[in-house]
Write a structure and sequence with these properties.
about 450 residues; alpha+beta; FAD/NAD(P)-binding domain; 3 domains; eight-stranded mixed β-sheet; 13 helices
Length: about 450
């Protein structure tokens, strides 16, 4: 429900930010018995994030299911996100094994559809008070820990106390900064622009990603017959790109292998983007504070996993602290458990993403895996599980998989009569470490 400003201010949890992570956390915590104040700086309940991949990777599906959003997304015609990836060895096209279960999926859905939907569900959840037009401006501290927030509203400043303050307010999180939680940044060597097109035909109507080494591009079909098309070139190309943004964007897309036929579609948005978007990670807790979504970890948008991680981190937090914030456990221990789980699940993914953001051709192990996945259906399925963040780097690059990929490529070289050269997808001995990703 939306609560009047003069109501009581004591809650179990106050959440700054009513986007995906904040709204999901509010729902999941309230269902577990917590009293939740959900603060949103914008006054419009239909507000949404504009600059986004508009994609929920398959790791988000269990959270969507727990939230009860799957039927609503299907009704909204969200697109199940099957995908094919272009590489120099051809297309990687994950398909279900004959006679086996379908591949895991979630949805491509515009944030203009998704954000109001999940925020409305949060407002309808018993135990959640949605407070629109509330901007967190300060933290209330007692005895060295945070016990609430100060928020500015159209009627002035307001103090709201709670056992736990949650920052779900994005990459530039005010809660994190006010709590003194620093961010470790990783340079991103690419810039990005995207636009939305209506009625853009794509083969099989599924998502396409192009790995051009080092440039990237993708086309993700969404609800309403709208496709998000994005380009992510090397920053070295930015000055020339900016001289004619529209012309450069369209030329880049038209030059893609099996390029989307833009002339057959209607562009319905401006070309928007970011020229500097570093990755960052924060310790997701402080005394009396937890961070979720982009406030805790911001990945590289080229992978399209930020929305999934936002929902997952909300679920992890709810599972860890619900008992403690309702008086049935130790809050500091619960927060520490959340932080350990967050780090264990996402550290390896972020390490690899930060390395790939340096803008370079594929390294030896990437060449091995991508080339083999383009040639073998089972490895294409394996790559789909990793790209969907359903498995981590250690399972993705386990020795048996690397050995299988090597055998696939050796057989291919023998059949084709090609020799091993500078472009060989078979890594030299000792190259399995992948820069320490699995340590």
């Amino acid at each position: 429900m939306t609560k009047p400003e003069n109501a009581g201010d004591d809650y179990d949890i106050v959440i700054g930010g009513a986007g995906l992570a904040g709204s999901a956390a509010a729902i999941l915590l309230a269902r577990r018995g917590a009293r939740v104040a959900l603060l949103e700086r914008r006054s419009d309940p239909e507000a949404y994030k504009v600059l986004c991949t508009h994609s929920l990777s398959a790791n988000a599906y269990p959270v969507l299911d727990e939230l009860g959003l799957v039927p609503a997304l299907e009704e909204a015609e969200a697109v199940r996100n099957e995908v094919r990836w272009y590489t120099r060895w051809g297309w990687i096209e994950p398909k279900a094994a004959p006679g086996g279960p379908g591949l895991p999926y979630a949805y491509n859905v515009r944030r203009s559809t998704l954000d109001p939907l999940i925020r409305c569900r949060a407002a309808q959840t018993p135990g959640v008070d949605l407070l629109l037009g509330h901007q967190v401006t300060g933290l209330v501290r007692e005895a060295g820990r945070t016990v609430g927030v100060r928020a500015s509203t159209s009627r002035g400043e307001r103090e709201i106390r709670a056992r736990l303050v949650v920052g779900a307010d994005g990459k530039e999180s005010a809660v994190a900064k006010l709590a003194g939680v620093p961010a470790r940044q990783f340079e991103n060597g690419r810039f990005g622009y995207l636009a939305q097109f209506r009625d853009l035909p794509l083969p099989d109507g599924i998502s396409h990603t192009w790995f051009l080494e080092p440039d990237m591009a993708y086309a993700f079909p969404n609800d309403g017959g709208v496709t998000v098309v994005a380009v992510l070139p090397d920053k070295k190309r930015l000055p020339a790109f900016r001289e004619d943004l529209e012309g450069s964007f369209l030329a880049f897309v038209r030059a893609l292998p099996e390029a989307p036929p833009l002339d057959s579609a209607e562009r319905i948005s401006k070309i928007i983007g970011l020229v500097d978007y570093p990755l960052h990670s924060r310790r997701p807790i402080a005394p009396g504070v937890a961070l979720i979504g982009d406030a805790a970890l911001t990945g590289d948008p080229l992978w399209g996993v930020g929305c999934g991680w936002a929902l997952e981190s909300a679920q992890w937090l709810a599972e860890a602290v619900a008992g403690a914030v309702t008086g049935r456990g130790d809050l500091d221990r619960s927060l520490a458990a959340y932080a350990r789980g967050h780090r264990r699940r996402l550290r390896g993914h972020q390490y690899l993403a930060a390395d790939f953001a340096k803008v370079r051709p594929f390294n030896p192990v990437e060449r091995l895996m991508f080339s083999a996945a383009a040639r073998d259906a089972s490895l294409a399925r394996h790559m789909h599980l990793f790209a969907s963040r359903l498995i981590g780097p250690l399972r993705f690059l386990n020795p048996l998989v690397l050995a299988k990929a090597s055998v696939i490529n050796i057989k291919h070289l023998r059949r084709s009569g090609a020799g091993a050269g500078a472009d060989s997808p078979i890594p030299a001995s000792g190259s399995r470490d992948v820069h320490g990703a699995g340590r």
